[in-house]
TrEMBL record:
SUPFAM superfamilies: MFS general substrate transporter. The keyword Repressor does not apply. Keywords: Membrane, Phosphate transport, Symport, Transmembrane, Transmembrane helix, Transport. The chain crosses the membrane at residues 54-71, 83-104, 111-131, 143-160, 172-193, 199-219. It holds the Pfam family Sugar_tr. It comes from Paspalum notatum var. saurae. GO terms for biological process: phosphate ion transport. This is H(+)/Pi cotransporter.
Protein backbone atom coordinates (compact mmCIF):
# COMPACT_ATOMS: atom_id res chain seq x y z
CA UNK A 1 0.00 0.00 0.00
CA UNK A 2 1.68 3.14 -1.20
CA UNK A 3 1.16 6.66 0.12
CA UNK A 4 1.00 9.94 -1.73
CA UNK A 5 4.19 11.81 -2.33
CA UNK A 6 4.73 14.73 -0.01
CA UNK A 7 7.13 17.59 -0.05
CA UNK A 8 10.16 17.93 2.14
CA UNK A 9 9.66 18.37 5.84
CA UNK A 10 9.71 21.01 7.10
CA UNK A 11 7.93 22.71 4.14
CA UNK A 12 9.66 25.50 2.29
CA UNK A 13 6.99 28.05 3.20
CA UNK A 14 6.04 28.70 6.77
CA UNK A 15 2.48 29.13 7.95
CA UNK A 16 0.81 29.94 11.22
CA UNK A 17 -2.34 28.10 10.27
CA UNK A 18 -2.12 24.89 12.28
CA UNK A 19 -5.32 23.53 10.76
CA UNK A 20 -3.79 23.67 7.28
CA UNK A 21 -0.71 21.94 8.62
CA UNK A 22 -2.86 19.10 9.98
CA UNK A 23 -4.59 18.74 6.61
CA UNK A 24 -1.23 18.46 4.87
CA UNK A 25 -0.11 15.74 7.25
CA UNK A 26 -3.35 13.80 6.75
CA UNK A 27 -2.95 14.04 2.99
CA UNK A 28 0.58 12.69 3.22
CA UNK A 29 -0.52 9.73 5.32
CA UNK A 30 -3.65 8.91 3.29
CA UNK A 31 -3.28 5.91 0.99
CA UNK A 32 -3.99 6.35 -2.70
CA UNK A 33 -6.82 3.79 -2.69
CA UNK A 34 -8.68 5.56 0.10
CA UNK A 35 -7.49 3.27 2.89
CA UNK A 36 -9.98 2.32 5.55
CA UNK A 37 -10.54 -0.84 7.51
CA UNK A 38 -11.80 -2.82 4.51
CA UNK A 39 -8.66 -2.03 2.54
CA UNK A 40 -6.57 -3.15 5.51
CA UNK A 41 -8.49 -6.39 5.86
CA UNK A 42 -8.05 -7.05 2.15
CA UNK A 43 -4.32 -6.51 2.56
CA UNK A 44 -4.25 -9.10 5.35
CA UNK A 45 -6.50 -11.52 3.46
CA UNK A 46 -4.24 -11.50 0.40
CA UNK A 47 -1.30 -12.83 2.44
CA UNK A 48 -1.70 -16.37 3.85
CA UNK A 49 0.86 -15.86 6.60
CA UNK A 50 -0.97 -12.76 7.86
CA UNK A 51 -4.40 -14.40 7.91
CA UNK A 52 -2.94 -17.42 9.74
CA UNK A 53 -1.47 -15.15 12.39
CA UNK A 54 -4.73 -13.26 12.75
CA UNK A 55 -6.83 -16.44 12.98
CA UNK A 56 -4.58 -18.01 15.62
CA UNK A 57 -4.50 -14.83 17.71
CA UNK A 58 -8.29 -14.45 17.49
CA UNK A 59 -8.96 -18.05 18.55
CA UNK A 60 -6.64 -17.63 21.54
CA UNK A 61 -8.31 -14.32 22.38
CA UNK A 62 -11.78 -15.90 22.21
CA UNK A 63 -10.93 -18.46 24.87
CA UNK A 64 -9.13 -15.94 27.07
CA UNK A 65 -12.03 -13.49 26.79
CA UNK A 66 -14.60 -16.12 27.71
CA UNK A 67 -12.80 -16.83 30.98
CA UNK A 68 -11.77 -13.22 31.66
CA UNK A 69 -15.35 -11.95 31.48
CA UNK A 70 -17.04 -15.11 32.73
CA UNK A 71 -15.17 -15.88 35.93
CA UNK A 72 -16.20 -12.70 37.81
CA UNK A 73 -19.80 -13.67 37.07
CA UNK A 74 -19.26 -17.16 38.48
CA UNK A 75 -17.92 -16.22 41.91
CA UNK A 76 -21.45 -16.36 43.33
CA UNK A 77 -21.55 -20.12 42.77
CA UNK A 78 -18.41 -20.79 44.82
CA UNK A 79 -20.33 -20.89 48.09
CA UNK A 80 -18.06 -18.31 49.73
CA UNK A 81 -18.68 -14.66 50.59
CA UNK A 82 -19.57 -12.87 47.36
CA UNK A 83 -18.14 -9.49 48.35
CA UNK A 84 -14.91 -10.99 49.61
CA UNK A 85 -14.48 -13.05 46.43
CA UNK A 86 -15.07 -9.97 44.27
CA UNK A 87 -12.51 -7.98 46.24
CA UNK A 88 -9.95 -10.76 45.88
CA UNK A 89 -10.56 -10.90 42.12
CA UNK A 90 -10.05 -7.14 41.81
CA UNK A 91 -6.78 -7.39 43.74
CA UNK A 92 -5.66 -10.31 41.57
CA UNK A 93 -6.29 -8.30 38.41
CA UNK A 94 -4.22 -5.37 39.68
CA UNK A 95 -1.32 -7.64 40.62
CA UNK A 96 -1.55 -9.48 37.30
CA UNK A 97 -1.08 -6.23 35.38
CA UNK A 98 2.14 -5.50 37.26
CA UNK A 99 3.50 -9.03 36.84
CA UNK A 100 2.51 -9.11 33.16
CA UNK A 101 4.58 -5.96 32.62
CA UNK A 102 7.57 -7.65 34.24
CA UNK A 103 6.98 -10.90 32.38
CA UNK A 104 6.72 -9.30 28.95
CA UNK A 105 10.15 -7.71 29.39
CA UNK A 106 11.91 -10.97 30.20
CA UNK A 107 10.05 -13.97 28.82
CA UNK A 108 8.99 -15.36 25.47
CA UNK A 109 5.59 -14.11 24.37
CA UNK A 110 4.53 -17.37 22.76
CA UNK A 111 5.55 -19.57 25.68
CA UNK A 112 4.00 -17.13 28.15
CA UNK A 113 0.58 -17.16 26.48
CA UNK A 114 0.52 -20.95 26.18
CA UNK A 115 1.73 -21.50 29.75
CA UNK A 116 -0.66 -18.98 31.28
CA UNK A 117 -3.63 -20.34 29.31
CA UNK A 118 -2.78 -23.90 30.35
CA UNK A 119 -2.42 -22.84 34.01
CA UNK A 120 -5.75 -21.02 33.93
CA UNK A 121 -7.40 -24.04 32.33
CA UNK A 122 -6.01 -26.43 34.92
CA UNK A 123 -7.14 -24.21 37.81
CA UNK A 124 -10.62 -23.89 36.32
CA UNK A 125 -10.93 -27.66 36.02
CA UNK A 126 -9.70 -28.02 39.60
CA UNK A 127 -12.33 -25.53 40.72
CA UNK A 128 -15.01 -27.62 39.00
CA UNK A 129 -13.68 -30.83 40.56
CA UNK A 130 -13.46 -29.55 44.15
CA UNK A 131 -16.68 -30.43 46.04
CA UNK A 132 -19.12 -27.77 47.21
CA UNK A 133 -18.16 -28.07 50.88
CA UNK A 134 -14.57 -26.87 50.41
CA UNK A 135 -15.24 -23.17 49.86
CA UNK A 136 -11.70 -22.05 50.71
CA UNK A 137 -10.10 -24.47 48.25
CA UNK A 138 -12.56 -23.50 45.51
CA UNK A 139 -11.88 -19.80 46.09
CA UNK A 140 -8.11 -20.37 45.94
CA UNK A 141 -8.42 -22.28 42.66
CA UNK A 142 -10.70 -19.58 41.22
CA UNK A 143 -8.30 -16.81 42.20
CA UNK A 144 -5.33 -18.59 40.63
CA UNK A 145 -7.34 -19.21 37.47
CA UNK A 146 -8.48 -15.58 37.23
CA UNK A 147 -4.96 -14.32 37.98
CA UNK A 148 -3.47 -16.42 35.16
CA UNK A 149 -6.28 -15.39 32.81
CA UNK A 150 -5.68 -11.68 33.43
CA UNK A 151 -1.98 -12.12 32.74
CA UNK A 152 -2.72 -14.10 29.58
CA UNK A 153 -5.04 -11.33 28.40
CA UNK A 154 -2.43 -8.61 28.94
CA UNK A 155 0.40 -10.59 27.32
CA UNK A 156 -1.77 -11.62 24.35
CA UNK A 157 -2.77 -8.03 23.55
CA UNK A 158 0.86 -6.89 23.70
CA UNK A 159 1.88 -9.91 21.62
CA UNK A 160 -0.74 -9.02 18.99
CA UNK A 161 0.71 -5.54 18.51
CA UNK A 162 4.07 -7.11 17.65
CA UNK A 163 2.73 -9.71 15.22
CA UNK A 164 1.60 -7.28 12.52
CA UNK A 165 3.29 -4.43 10.64
CA UNK A 166 2.42 -0.83 11.45
CA UNK A 167 0.24 -0.38 8.36
CA UNK A 168 -2.30 -3.02 9.50
CA UNK A 169 -1.63 -3.18 13.23
CA UNK A 170 -4.62 -1.14 14.43
CA UNK A 171 -7.15 -3.20 12.49
CA UNK A 172 -5.54 -6.53 13.40
CA UNK A 173 -5.35 -5.75 17.12
CA UNK A 174 -8.92 -4.44 16.98
CA UNK A 175 -10.10 -7.79 15.59
CA UNK A 176 -8.21 -9.68 18.28
CA UNK A 177 -9.86 -7.48 20.89
CA UNK A 178 -13.27 -8.07 19.32
CA UNK A 179 -12.70 -11.84 19.47
CA UNK A 180 -11.98 -11.46 23.17
CA UNK A 181 -15.21 -9.53 23.70
CA UNK A 182 -17.14 -12.10 21.66
CA UNK A 183 -15.87 -14.82 23.98
CA UNK A 184 -17.11 -12.74 26.88
CA UNK A 185 -20.55 -12.54 25.26
CA UNK A 186 -20.85 -16.34 25.42
CA UNK A 187 -19.80 -16.50 29.08
CA UNK A 188 -23.12 -15.52 30.76
CA UNK A 189 -24.87 -18.51 29.21
CA UNK A 190 -22.31 -20.85 30.73
CA UNK A 191 -22.49 -19.05 34.07
CA UNK A 192 -26.27 -19.60 34.17
CA UNK A 193 -25.85 -23.29 33.38
CA UNK A 194 -23.11 -23.63 35.97
CA UNK A 195 -25.29 -22.59 38.87
CA UNK A 196 -26.51 -26.17 39.10
CA UNK A 197 -23.33 -27.98 38.05
CA UNK A 198 -19.91 -26.31 38.06
CA UNK A 199 -18.76 -28.40 35.12
CA UNK A 200 -20.86 -26.20 32.81
CA UNK A 201 -19.12 -23.03 33.95
CA UNK A 202 -15.66 -23.66 35.37
CA UNK A 203 -15.27 -26.91 33.46
CA UNK A 204 -16.07 -25.37 30.09
CA UNK A 205 -13.97 -22.32 30.95
CA UNK A 206 -10.99 -24.55 31.65
CA UNK A 207 -11.34 -26.47 28.40
CA UNK A 208 -11.95 -23.30 26.37
CA UNK A 209 -8.91 -21.35 27.53
CA UNK A 210 -6.65 -24.41 27.65
CA UNK A 211 -7.45 -25.52 24.10
CA UNK A 212 -7.59 -22.06 22.54
CA UNK A 213 -4.30 -21.09 24.15
CA UNK A 214 -2.57 -23.86 22.19
CA UNK A 215 -3.16 -21.89 19.00
CA UNK A 216 -0.65 -19.32 20.23
CA UNK A 217 2.04 -21.98 19.85
CA UNK A 218 1.74 -21.62 16.06
CA UNK A 219 2.57 -17.89 16.18
CA UNK A 220 6.11 -16.60 15.60
CA UNK A 221 8.11 -15.34 18.53
CA UNK A 222 8.48 -11.53 18.50
CA UNK A 223 10.59 -10.82 21.57
CA UNK A 224 13.61 -8.69 20.66
CA UNK A 225 12.64 -8.42 16.98
CA UNK A 226 12.26 -5.16 15.08
CA UNK A 227 8.68 -4.48 14.00
CA UNK A 228 8.11 -3.78 10.31
CA UNK A 229 6.37 -0.71 8.94
CA UNK A 230 4.47 -2.38 6.10
CA UNK A 231 3.55 -5.80 4.75
CA UNK A 232 6.26 -5.83 2.06
CA UNK A 233 9.02 -5.33 4.62
CA UNK A 234 7.57 -8.10 6.77
CA UNK A 235 7.51 -10.46 3.80
CA UNK A 236 11.13 -9.65 2.99
CA UNK A 237 12.12 -10.38 6.59
CA UNK A 238 10.27 -13.69 6.43
CA UNK A 239 12.05 -14.60 3.18
CA UNK A 240 15.44 -13.71 4.61
CA UNK A 241 14.74 -15.74 7.75
CA UNK A 242 13.67 -18.72 5.63
CA UNK A 243 16.86 -18.52 3.54
CA UNK A 244 19.05 -18.17 6.65
CA UNK A 245 17.48 -21.22 8.25
Amino acid sequence: MQSRRCGRWPPSTTTDDLSMLELELEACAMPEDGGGVFSTLQTIWERPWAIRRLAAAMVAAFGVGMVYYGMPLSVGSLGSNLYLSTAYNALAEVLSAVLAWLLIARASRRVSVVALAASAGACNLACAAIPQGAEAARMAAELLAFFATCMASDVLLIYSTELFPTSVRNSAVGLVRQAMVLGGAAAPVLVALGRQRSIWSFGVFGLAIGCSGLFAASLPETRGKIMSDDMDKEERKRSEAAVAS
